[in-house]
Amino acid sequence: MPSCIICHLNVDENTDSHYTCNNGHPVHRYCLAEWLMHSQNCPLCSEPYSQNLINQFKDYMEKKEQEKQEALDKKLELETIKKMQEATKKIIFQKYFEINEKQLKQGQYEEVIEKLLNRYDENSVDENNLKVLFLLGKANYLKGRYDLAINFLFKLVKIKFDYPDGFLYLGKAYEKLGLKDKAQWAYDRVKESK
Ligand SMILES: [Zn+2]
Ligand SMILES: [Zn+2]
Q: Is the pTM for the entire model greater than 0.70?
């Protein structure tokens, strides 16, 4: 019994739908259908399959091509939706931080701290959560709670060393507590992390 040159399984000439190239190399119908998506030549001898034979698979190839395109379109659509969601999330957070900064300028420290504490997630190192941590430090500094400010800011720079403003307010808080060496250490890090 001959075997299919694509899948190497037997071709039962009585029951299996099959074809051959001009040099007599047998292939199953379903194996050839897949193969024709890649090439129109026999995989063994590279002899081109007859146009007549290829035409029999035209509908199948078009359908496959269409399915491939639809899958690509779907993927693109999902990627676009994801990008839009991320952009929206970014804008919402930007607005949120702007409002908090504005309230800090107006001296509404308590209010801002309460809001930030509700938002703060101890287990997240997400960029937005780090910003929440920074603002918690800054708000407590402005409120005069230098010990708490140091607590939050130290947590922040331990997660992300590259945070100049974090070190800046950390230095300021140490300075207010009269811890000059520590303040200097923090100020030095501002330059390093810039
Ligand atoms: Zn086969
Ligand atoms: Zn062949």
A: no
